[in-house]
Amino acid sequence: MDVEQPLALQSTGLVVEELPFRFAARIEHIEAVTGWEQQLELQQLHEIFLDSFSELRMSEPPGTEECPLSVSDLKEYTEVIRNVRKRHRPVVALLAEAFRKMMHNDAAWIEDDAFQSWADTFLISRISTEMLTSHYMAVVESHDPSAAQLLSEDHIGIVDTKCNPGRICEEAAKAVQAMYTSPRRLEACDFFMCVHSHSDSGSLSAIEFSYIPKYLFYIVQELIKNSARATVEACEMDRRRTLSQRPIVVTVCADQKQVAIRIADQGGGVPFGKGDEIWSYRFSTSKQPVQEYLESGSPLAGWGVGLPLGRLYARYLGGSLELMNVPGTGVDAYLFLRRIAPEGVPRSSISDSLAPV
């Protein structure tokens, strides 16, 4: 079966052209850090990007605009991309562990604004390459009868043209609830979480828009997880109110231009003096082992990078993430997402220019 030519060729072309270039830029990015050779995690990151760069440069995908392209033709190259994705899974965890060690060693650079800029640039590139390879895999597998799961007609690569944010928020809330009822926890936490999804402005239909579901899930899950952690800590400090008396409320609404998601908790908020630190990679309330990060499957899991990385994801996809902090009461997180009509999603690629290197 031939792959849909414009979609497959464009996706493959972007991968071939962009990935080696971006990985080379990240290698230089790491080498710009003074003493990176003495930092184990930075060494490992350097090796990951170098190995992927070399593997991609040694691999040339078949097919041209003049030559028909089939799934079988792309099988070998697709396996290369699958290996690259597997190799890059621990990147965020390794980067965050490097941050932690630099803070522990009192590295002066990590206190400077240049560090925040360095981290933002690194992670934006991570987002763009992860999104590019995800899209490529989705395009190829959507035309492969042997794939584990074929995408529905509502999907264009990784984009769901009928993404239901209310349903995704419910799934994220259930996932967080499951974390706190896991057998590995010493004490189960009985949260009260509720999701209110209002009808689309001006219609009686459910809210649907074109978006990438898994990234929306990751962002919402991280926000709910932060609220859950804060709520547990607040209850431990003040036992006059139980978890069920401190509900986490998720509200979804939309108009014709954007979708808004509010996640409100009663976890006590963040002290005024630390309010600005929330968006810093130096700020963390979680100590999460690398293995737990890998098992979670979330690129935002713990490590103190969840909120700033979530904001980068939102901005990268044309939205924004803002927090309203009320110390002593709680935090309201506001996620604003731009609406794009299904006909506005290009079927040739996810983006003609993913992001600055």
Give an overview in words.
The protein is of the alpha+beta class. It contains nine helices and eight strands. Helix 1 runs antiparallel to helix 5, helix 5 crosses helix 9 and helix 7 runs antiparallel to helix 9. The two termini are 35 Å apart.
Spatial ordering of strands, largest sheet: 3-5-6-8-7
Shape: globular
Uncertain parts: 289-295, 347-356
- CATH C-level category of the largest domain: Alpha Beta
CATH architecture of the largest domain: 2-Layer Sandwich
N-end to C-end Cα span:
35 Å
Would you count the extended β strands for me? 8
CATH topology of the largest domain: Heat Shock Protein 90
By CATH, the superfamily of the largest domain comes out as Histidine kinase-like ATPase, C-terminal domain
Radius of gyration, in Å, reads 21 Å
Largest sheet properties: 5 strands, mixed
Percent helix, as a range, is: 40-55%
Look at the structure and give the mean pLDDT: 81
Number of helices: 9
> Helices and strands, in N-to-C order?
HHHHHEEHEEHEEHHEE
User: Number of folding domains?
Assistant: 2
Strand content: 5-15%
Protein name: Protein-serine/threonine kinase
Organism: Symbiodinium microadriaticum
EC number: 2.7.11.-
Catalytic activity: L-seryl-[pyruvate dehydrogenase E1 alpha subunit] + ATP = O-phospho-L-seryl-[pyruvate dehydrogenase E1 alpha subunit] + ADP + H(+)
